[in-house]
Design brief:
- The chain is α+β, with helices and mostly antiparallel strands.
- Helices cover 17% and strands 45% of the residues.
- The protein has one domain (4-108): OB fold (Dihydrolipoamide Acetyltransferase, E2P) (Beta Barrel), CATH 2.40.50.1020.
- The chain has a five-stranded antiparallel beta sheet. Strands 8-9-10 form a three-stranded antiparallel beta sheet, with no helix packed on it. Strands 1-2 form a two-stranded antiparallel sheet.
- The longest helix has 12 residues, at 97-108.
- The protein is globular and about 45 Å long.
């Protein structure tokens, strides 16, 4: 059995017949789309079949937050924020009221 410490900084994502290792720090955001998740990294996109909630549990809690019912974001990649959205790599991601309050309180602390 492989110890979990091997995967403490990354996750494997299947694409065609290969499993690609993705470092957590490279994941910018994850978008839920029906039964699929679109995992967006700095330079690639991966489609994964998984509920968003299950995926969130696999990610480090201090970096990844559910910004909206359909999005998980890596807070290290947030470039800008306004009252309705955050911007990550020129992509506007809608945010919930709770997440906005969380981010703003984090920025002020």
């Amino acid at each position: 059995m492989v110890s979990n410490s091997v995967l403490k900084d990354s996750i494997f994502v299947k694409k065609q017949h290969l499993y690609y290792r993705i470092q957590f720090e490279d994941i910018q955001f994850i978008k839920a789309d029906n039964v699929y998740l679109e995992v967006n990294t700095i330079d690639k996109k991966f489609l994964v079949r998984s509920p968003l909630k299950d995926y969130l549990e696999k990610l480090p809690k201090h970096k990844f937050y559910r910004a909206h019912k359909s999005y998980i974001v890596n807070v290290d990649h947030i470039d800008a924020i306004n009252s309705k959205d955050i911007m990550i790599n020129n992509t506007l991601i809608p945010i919930s009221k709770e997440f906005k309050e969380f981010i703003i309180s984090s920025m002020n602390s």
